[in-house]
């Protein structure tokens, strides 16, 4: 992309995850630079202007709320996203376990959303190969929120998941409450799109 093309296009970050993990709080903490005590289910879609983002790219941030949106709406948003942040809460084991479920949920709609997610289980591979464009790849970022509530890191649990899914670009632990790693999170999201480190395609799978 040239700079001009990037400006015209903008970038879309998408936050998904289990209810109450802090998706809306993360967005609002980024925008207002303080922890909001009361948040709606879903933050208004916002565009961060290019000149205040580290990579100088206008960035749209889209929130998701299970309470307010249907699966179809989610998949529609996902199909437009350049990067997807999957948020879990580091103090909530089920929200980490549900990560795997989230992948499965994405994959069942893979033909609809035209996402190229590479899943390593034998069950899903044929479906993905049939339905995805192997040249496209939407990076995922795992976001462990509420780090202020725990002493230990969730990395031990997260690393095996990352190793199984090459589309996960990076992971970050943060806290909307004490603003730890909030700007870093959105920087990693931009970077995942503009300078991906992972393979853009799997050469052995190309014809
Ligand atoms: P849904 O939209 O309902 O799916 O929830 P959500 O993922 O958007 O979470 P939300 O931002 O509504 O936050 C849920 C609860 O967690 C609220 O009570 C927040 O105040 C709290 N919360 C969010 N982030 C943090 C954090 O970093 N630390 C702590 N201690 N609490 C947090
Ligand atoms: Mg919310």
From TrEMBL:
Residues 8-195 form the Miro domain. Signal peptide: none annotated. It is found in: Mitochondrion outer membrane. Residues 1-15 are annotated as: Disordered. It comes from the Eukaryota. Atypical mitochondrial nucleoside-triphosphatase (NTPase) involved in mitochondrial trafficking. Probably involved in control of anterograde transport of mitochondria and their subcellular distribution. Can hydrolyze GTP, ATP and UTP. Belongs to the mitochondrial Rho GTPase family. This is Mitochondrial Rho GTPase. The chain holds residues 7 to 213 of 678 of the full protein.
